[in-house]
Each structure stands twice: as C-alpha cells, then as structure tokens.
Amino acid sequence: MAAIEPMEQFLVRKVVDLPPIPVPGLGSLDMSITNSVMFMLIAAALISTFFFAAARRQVVPGRLQAVAEMLYNLVDSALTGGIIGDRGRPFLPFVFTLFLLIATLNLIGLAPGGFTVTSQLAVTATLAVLTFGTVLVVGFVRNGLGFFKLFWPSGVHPAMAAFLMVIELISFSVRPLTLAMRLFGNMLGGHVVTYMFASFVIGLGLFGLEGAGLAKLGLLGSAVSFMMIVALMALEFVVAFLQAFVFAALTCVYLNEVVNLDHGH
Amino acid sequence: MDVTAAKYIGAGLAMTGLIGAGAGLGILFGNYLQAAIRNPAAAAGERVWLFLGMALAESMGIFGFVMGFIILFVKV
Fold this sequence. Notes:
Chain A is mainly α. Chain A contains 7 helices and 4 strands, in the order ββββααααααα. In chain A, the strands form 2 sheets. In chain A, strands 1-4 form a two-stranded antiparallel ribbon. In chain A, strands 2-3 form a two-stranded antiparallel sheet. In chain A, strand 2 and strand 3 (about 25-30) form a beta hairpin. In chain B, about 85% of the residues lie in helices and about 0% in strands. Chain B has helices at about 5-15, 15-40, 40-45, 45-75. The two termini of chain B are about 20 Å apart.
C-alpha cells in the first residue's frame, strides 16, 4: 500500500521549465511556470471569459448576466456599500477582484486534479500584504498624519490611552498575518482532512476485504468514511466561497477605518 | 523522551486551540439565531457581521491548527 502523505498534494512543481533570468543586484530569478502559476492563469482566464461572455449590457439580463450581476451586487451592496458606505465606491474594483480571484482559486482547488493555489502561504501572504499596503497608503493619503488618530482611543485618561495605543498598534500590525493565515489554514486544513478520510476509505476497505470475522467491520468504517468525504466536500464548497467573502469583507472593514476616520461610520 | 514522540504530543496539544474556536462559533451562531428569531426583519442586515465574527472566531482555532502543522512538518 502506498504511503499516506497528506502534504504531497501541496507541492509546487515545475510544469514549463524556463531558463533563469539574471537580475542585477539580486542574483537570478526563476520564472518557470509551476502548477501554482498555471492554475492562477487558468483562474484569470476563467474569470475574464465569464465576464466577457456575461457583460452583454442587456436591460433584462439573461442567465449568465444575472449570475454576474448577482456577484457584483453582493460585493457592491453588502461589502463596499454596506461596510464602507458611499466613500467605498472607489475601492469596489479592488475588493471585487480580490473576491473573485480567491473564490475562483479556492473552487478550482476542489476540482479533481486541481491544485489549490490559496493553500500556499506565499500566495495568501502576498494578497494580505497587498491589502495592508492599500490600507496604509489610503490612510496616509486621505488623513496625512491624522492617520495615527486611529490608534488613539478617545475619552480615556492620557496615561491609559498611551498604554492602549501600544496594544492597538500591535493588533493593527498583525492584521496581514491573520489575513494570510486564515485563508491558508482553512484551505490547507480542509484538503488535509478530506485526504485523511480518503485514506481511511482505502485502508479500512482493504483491511475489511482481506481479513475475516470481526475485521469485516472495516468495510463499515470504509463506507462511513466515504459518506464523510461527501459531507466534507459540501462543507468545503461553502468554506471556499465563504473564505473569499470573508477576505473581501475584512479588507472592507480595514479600509473603512481609514476612509471614514474623521467621522464615525 | 524521543523527539518524534514529543513532536506528535505537541501537535496534539496545539489542536486544543480548536476547543475555543468551537465554543466561540457555537456562541456566535446561537446568539445570531436567537436574535434572528426574535426580529427576523433585522436578520438579513447583520449577516455580513455574522460571517466576519465567524472568521475572527475561527482564525484563533486556525492558528492552533497551523502551529500543529509547523510542529509536525517544518524541519528545523
């Protein structure tokens, strides 16, 4: 029986080998197309094709356009509109792109043979740092040095406020870390758990087939594990969509703090 | 103690962080449901915050989970 290796599915392999490009001052840069890059390209192609096909600009939308409008409305009314408010409109493209990219990558990962790009900490960390950088830049551009009012609690004794400011600063700085780890952990965990139950199906099934007497109970365990996989896959589809939604929603919450800093919203 | 054994015990202990995440999610969804049944008209508007709270509660558990994986699979 093959060894059970739950982490093997997350290995990044080269699909198309390209020669390394020398970069002055940095050494050489390996731009080979790995399975991670390939699935990102597939996701980008899927999203583009879908929206080019859906955007017919009809007043009475067809089925495809209705789906696209539903997705757009979800981000527009619930996220940027609902959390940031009217000032959130300029951030709609950014949040919508994040949401679509993460949702598509998560869902492609669930397809048989698919590689889950969002289970790579490097990818989720890049997205999180991008979000964090946007929040910082928007915060400083809109508020100038008034950005630091974000950390200064109002209505507290100054000595206490100084202490709280340290805590606020720490909780602000770990945001990219939590953002990256949440998506990474959810995708990694879901796939590992599904893999473990799949290995139970085969392991217990073989045990039941080969053994006699009480060992036949292994077949029952195998069947139960199989039903667990079906249930877990259903849960994974929910999680895949929900984590993309949560990532976009948290981006909006963080942006809201700096966009509406001068007047509470 | 054998290092491998200690690793497995440590990874198992790291998973206890999920207790808090489970309790937190239970409290969150329980309270949301209670509020939604009392005032169904306001339920839809608070759903975004429900999922945000879910993400925040769950992330603590996920950190424990990731710690377990780091203990098991990261070679120092």
